[in-house]
Amino acid sequence: MSTLAFLSSASQPADRRANGPQDSDSHLLDAYSRAVTEAVERVSPSVIAIEVKKPAVAGNSAQRPRGRGGDVAGAGSGFIVTPDGFTLTNSHVVHGATSLHAMLTDGRRLDAQLIGDDPDTDLAVIRIDGPDLVPAALGDSSALRPGQVAVAIGCPLGFQCTVTTGVISALGRSLPAQNGRLMDAIIQTDAALNPGNSGGPLVDTRGEVVGVNTAVILGAQGLAFAVPVNTARDVAAELINHGRIRRSFVGFGGQTVPLVRQVVRYYQLAQETGVLVIAVEPGSPAQAAGLAEGDIIIRAGEHGATSIEAIQRVLTHETIGAPMSLVVLRGTELVTLTAVPAERVA
User: Fold this and answer.
1) DSSP code, position 136
2) What is the pLDDT of residue 312?
3) Would the pLDDT of 221 be above 80?
4) Is 122 a catalytic residue?
5) Annotated catalytic residue: which of 46, 77, 141, 198?
6) I need a labelling partner for 276 at 20 to 30 A (CA). Which of 7, 36, 111, 117 fits?
7) CA dihedral over 123, 124, 125, 130, signed as positive or negative
8) Whole-prediction pTM
């Protein structure tokens, strides 16, 4: 409520203020506050602060060695996803760590070990060993809508379990990972993030995790990004089971776009979105298959290509070297191409 509106309502008689729109606005604000606080109360016991030590990088004067062997200290956030201590965080927080410790909201400081990390998605799994660990509830990032309330929880700048709120600003963003590869289907939010927030959960008003906070753009205001929890769930399962991600790739960059309704009706498609190809890597399986910028992929193998995430889920270790059909919309024509995914080398 603006100051002007507040002063205007204050000048009205008491009986008019009691039943006026300002009273209704106050009730809505209370409902919003209740939703946020309940979400925070539900997920905060699962949030941890991560203390990291890594070898110093030669020539980087910004890194100040601390402790034995010239290691540098770092920090990040994470959240517990299983009762036996498996915890999600960012790859860039823990990659190359020589030691890891976790600080829980109840004050416990526990040893942690790196299970595996995946720089391509900037995700990692660590494990902490302790009793009475509370896992976070994971939601469904495919159900997110721009404008939806988002709550970021983490440990920025050493302040444990800090809460910021905002909205889902946009979906389907592309963002370069630390290794330079492009991460697709990224969530954009204006919930404030600071150094140390990396790896913490982005949650909805039900207290369910919908993303893993990963990055901010320095110098920009209100631009923060999170990896969708659906991606994080798949990556975490592979890291827990195998310690690494072995995946195939076709070699294109894309973004999820809506399909023209007339095209959907004409071809009787069972989907309303596809993946627009915005770049094709030279020498890649995509180029060999004849995929071109401007094509809209609507099917990959036996699966509908409704989003970048849907295609990523198809490109597993099982598809390495196996011919895969790509059905694309080229202009107004449906074209079927055959690509042979190759193994992605880190």
Assistant:
1) P
2) 81
3) no
4) yes
5) 198
6) 117
7) negative
8) 0.69
